[in-house]
């Protein structure tokens, strides 16, 4: 089941029953072609008629080694790290390319306390804590994002490791930035504020995402002057992400 679960997660796991895991293949708004591909990849017998399926607020998925689900989805089997995101109005639920690129790069950062700079739903902070990488301070300007991230930390049983606060990146005290790994999927104005708050000494490692090419050039050049160099840069469509380490 551990091997098959990432495929089943894409089919909306709904409940564990004595016979196995019930999945709801067409919930959550994915298109039929994508669903058909996922079904074809399932190597286990699956129940064609799952019975009444609760309305699920968003698709479940595995990305960056973490299963993310709503409180209505079935939990992952033991051995698969999972986070629970409550429905809310923070930025997306990890479906956005800018978030996905960050999740995929978490493994390339050093362990340590992290700052989730512009945490939205809290997904990056929760994944960092769940993967045992370190405690996290998650901040966002937007009260609805702060609510969602905090509730999701509780729902995931991670509230002791993830502390969520409403704050502007520009107003963070210096020591809340520099001795941390910084996860910054945020607009360019927020990246500039972060640069002002955390420049000397620099963070232990930094993920920058949510920028288009010109803005990424500007932000990467500003961090280079302060001693962080880009070790990897990638794009999905017009969105770019970069991984930076002290040089
Ligand atoms: C693109 S979303 C990313 C959310 C989440 N980190 C993710 O990866 O899915 C950017 C978030 O940054 C927040 N934000 C923007 N400017 C900010 C600032 N100056 N200080 C704090 N948060 C800010 C927004 O409210 C939004 O939730």
Description of the molecule:
28% of the residues lie in helices and 25% in strands. It has 247 residues and is of the alpha/beta class. The protein has two domains: 5-84, no CATH class; 97-246, Vaccinia Virus protein VP39 (Rossmann fold, 3-Layer(aba) Sandwich). Strands 8-7-6-9-10-12-11 form a seven-stranded mixed sheet, sandwiched between helices. A three-stranded mixed sheet has the order 3-4-5. The N and C termini lie far apart (42 Å). The relative contact order is 0.11. S-adenosylmethionine binds at residues 90-92, 98-99, 102, 116, 118-120, 123-124, 139-142, 145, 168-170, 185-187, 190, 193, 210.
Total count of helical runs of at least 4 residues: 7
> How many β-strand runs?
12
CATH-derived architecture of the largest domain: 3-Layer(aba) Sandwich
Approximately how much beta-strand content do the residues carry?
25-35%
Bound molecules: S-adenosylmethionine
Number of domains: 2
List the strand order in the largest sheet: 8-7-6-9-10-12-11
Mean pLDDT: 87
CATH superfamily of the largest domain: Vaccinia Virus protein VP39
Secondary structure elements and pairings:
Layout: H1 5-9, E1 13-17, E2 20-23, H2 32-41, E3 61-63, E4 66-69, E5 82-84, H3 97-105, E6 114-117, H4 123-130, E7 136-140, H5 143-155, E8 162-166, E9 181-185, H6 188-197, E10 205-211, H7 213-225, E11 228-236, E12 239-246
Parallel strand pairs: 4-5, 6-7, 6-9, 7-8, 9-10
Antiparallel strand pairs: 1-2, 3-4, 10-12, 11-12
